[in-house]
Amino acid sequence: MRFEDVLHPTPQGLYSPPGDFWIDPVVPVPRALITHGHADHARAGHGAVLATRQTLDIMALRYGEGFTDTRQEAGAEPVDIGGVTVRFVPAGHVLGSAQIVLDHGGKRFVVSGDYCRHPNPACAPFEPVPCDVFVTEATFALPVFKHPDPAEEIARLMQSLAAFPDRAHLVGAYALGKAQRVIALIREAGWDKPIYIHGALQKLCDYHADQGIALGELRAATSDKTDKKAYAGQIVIAPPSAFNAPWARRFPDPLIGFASGWMQIRNRAKARGVELPLILSDHVDWPDLTRTIEELDPEETWITHGREDALMRWCEMTGRKGRPLRLVGYEDEVPE
């Protein structure tokens, strides 16, 4: 049996012929298995969706209850789909994110979706699953990308607040996963004051709190009537796009921060006018990416969603078999 008989790329996404399902398809399909709730992986309009309960909830929050005709929760026990045994294990990326493990014909496939090996207080940690085929993302698949300790990055934010107590600290963070992780890390650093959030983050922050993620007191930062001085020395979390809108003008001498793995590239930070770049990524960096492949030791590594060439070269140099999938339509809903 060839690996491609069980799983192979199609224009719609990764497809399993025996199970007759797609994983994270880019267009509506009859049956979809979804790794997590980011828009480049979770789209509305599929006939049936199998995902973790939290991913199903997040899709409903983002797309409405009618995002699919039929939804099925992936629980602790494996399910059989056309002779393919399917189970979901944590990916460490965002709340509800999962790797999809397929067993068929004595072979095991792990489709990781997006994943992260750094501790994340806003979601369950990555669970390594040895396999024959590992499908990995390659968002930061260059040796230059080595992400620092998240606690150290948050410490830099705390130091800035102490140094500039008269300035509002606006931190750009994407709505699903990154914003809640930043807030949880700030709480772990000992900040017990209210944290102000943009209205676009409210629903997802409320959901994370309902799921037991310790976010502390959050206040809306959307009222035009609030005195600017009230935000001095405060933390405001917002989608990065909000900083270019009139909304940002309500804050006193705002100090702009941005939490992203891409902040390691100084030109990106400079181009966005970011004064406090925080290198916080929910994806694996180069050391964790290569460590994961070595740990799982798959017969083949299939590479998608990012920079394939460097990782292909690393596979060749270490005597491993790599395969670039070159799937289209897989990019973060915003650049990380």
Automatic annotation (TrEMBL):
GO function terms (MF aspect): RNA endonuclease activity
Highest taxon listed in the record's lineage: Bacteria
NCBIfam families: Xnuc_lig_assoc
Name of this chain's protein: Beta-lactamase
